[in-house]
Specification:
47% of the residues lie in helices and 16% in strands. With 279 residues, it is α+β, with helices and mostly antiparallel strands. The strands form three sheets. A five-stranded antiparallel sheet has the order 1-2-3-5-4, with helices on both faces. The chain has a three-stranded antiparallel sheet with strand order 6-8-9, covered by helices on one side. A two-stranded antiparallel sheet has the order 7-10. β1 and β2 form a beta hairpin.
Length: 279
C-alpha cells in the first residue's frame, strides 16, 4: 500500500486522528510503520492475508498481568489489518545506552527483562491464551536446514569452519515438550524501551512474531546484541524458574542466526554477524 493511501485510510477510519506530521519507518519487514504526530504508531500489514488479530488479543490479555508498558491498541480497523497505539515514552535500548549503566544497574535491568520473559512464558498454557491459536514453529531449525543448502556452494574457509563448528550442536539438539513456551521472539534492543535517566525498563514492543517454540529462543536476539548482558538476563531468569538454561543451545542458536544474517540480511545485523563470524 502506498504511503499516501495509508494516510488516507487512517484519516477515513479514524477521523479523530488529525495528522499534522508523520514519519514512515522502513525497518518493518512485514509491516508499514508510521509515526503520526510524534505520538502515535500505526502499523499496516503488508501481506494481504495477514491480520493483527492474535497480537491484539494477546496484548489486551497481557495489559493487567505485566508491570511494564506494552502497546495498548487504541485504533484497530474492522479487518484488523491496521492497528495504532500511543508511543511508549523514553527510548530504544542501545549498546551505548547500556554502556552507561553501572554493573548494579545492568543487573537490575537484566532482572526486569527476565521477569518480563518469565511472565510471558508463564501464561503459555492458560486456557485464555491457548484459544488464541498461536502456531508452534521450529524456527531456528528451519533456518539451519536452509543454511545447509547454501553452504554447499560456499568457498570461504572462515565461513565453512564456522558452520562446521555448529554441526555437532545441531546433530545433538532436540526440542522437548518441557521446553515449549509462548515466545515474544523478537527481543532485539530496538524492541526494548528504557528510561535511560532512571536506568530502568519502561516497556517492550512488537509482539508480531509471537509463537510457541523452545523458550531459549527468547534469549537469542539479546545474545546476538550483547552476550555478556544476556548472561545476566539468563542468571536472573533462572532465579525465577529455578531451572537451568541450556546455555550451549542459546549460543548455538545465536551463532546460527548470525550465519543466517550474513547470507540474508541487509540491515545492521549483517555487520554484527560479520564480526561474530570473523569475516
Amino acid at each position: 500500500m502506498h504511503i499516501q493511501e495509508i494516510l488516507n485510510t487512517i484519516k477515513l477510519l479514524f477521523p479523530e486522528v488529525v495528522i499534522q506530521n508523520f514519519e514512515h519507518i522502513t525497518k518493518g519487514y512485514e509491516n508499514d510503520i508510521l509515526v503520526v504526530n510524534n505520538s502515535l504508531i500505526f502499523r499496516v500489514a503488508k501481506d494481504v492475508n495477514r491480520t493483527y488479530e492474535k497480537e491484539i488479543l494477546f496484548l489486551d490479555f497481557l495489559q493487567s498481568r505485566i508491570n511494564i508498558s506494552i502497546p495498548q491498541i487504541s485504533f484497530r480497523s474492522q479487518d484488523l489489518k491496521i492497528m495504532g497505539y500511543k508511543i511508549i515514552p523514553w527510548e530504544e535500548l542501545t549498546k551505548s545506552v547500556l554502556g552507561d549503566f553501572s554493573e548494579r544497574e545492568r543487573d537490575i535491568f537484566a532482572r526486569q527483562i527476565a521477569e518480563f520473559l518469565f511472565i510471558i512464558h508463564g501464561v503459555s498454557f492458560l486456557p485464555e491464551v491457548k484459544k488464541f491459536n498461536f502456531p508452534h514453529y521450529h524456527k531456528i531449525q528451519h533456518v539451519w536446514e536452509r543454511l545447509t543448502s547454501f553452504l554447499r556452494e560456499e568457498n570461504n574457509p572462515k565461513i565453512l569452519a564456522f558452520a562446521e563448528s555448529l554441526r555437532d550442536g545441531w546433530n545433538n539438539y532436540s526440542e522437548t515438550i518441557d521446553d515449549i513456551r509462548l515466545l515474544h521472539n523478537d527481543l532485539f534492543f530496538k524492541n526494548i524501551i528504557c528510561n535511560s535517566s532512571e536506568k530502568k525498563l519502561s516497556g517492550i514492543i512488537d509482539f508480531s512474531d509471537t509463537f510457541y517454540g523452545d523458550y531459549i529462543l527468547d534469549f537469542v536476539a539479546l545474545y546476538f546484541e550483547d552476550s555478556s548482558f544476556t548472561e545476566k538476563v539468563m542468571d536472573a531468569y533462572e532465579s525465577f524458574t529455578h531451572r537451568k538454561i541450556h546455555r550451549e543451545n542459546v549460543r548455538l542458536f545465536a551463532r546460527t542466526f548470525a550465519l543466517n544474517e550474513l547470507y540474508f540480511s541487509d540491515t545492521y545485523n549483517k555487520a554484527i554477524a560479520s564480526r561474530l563470524i570473523g569475516v
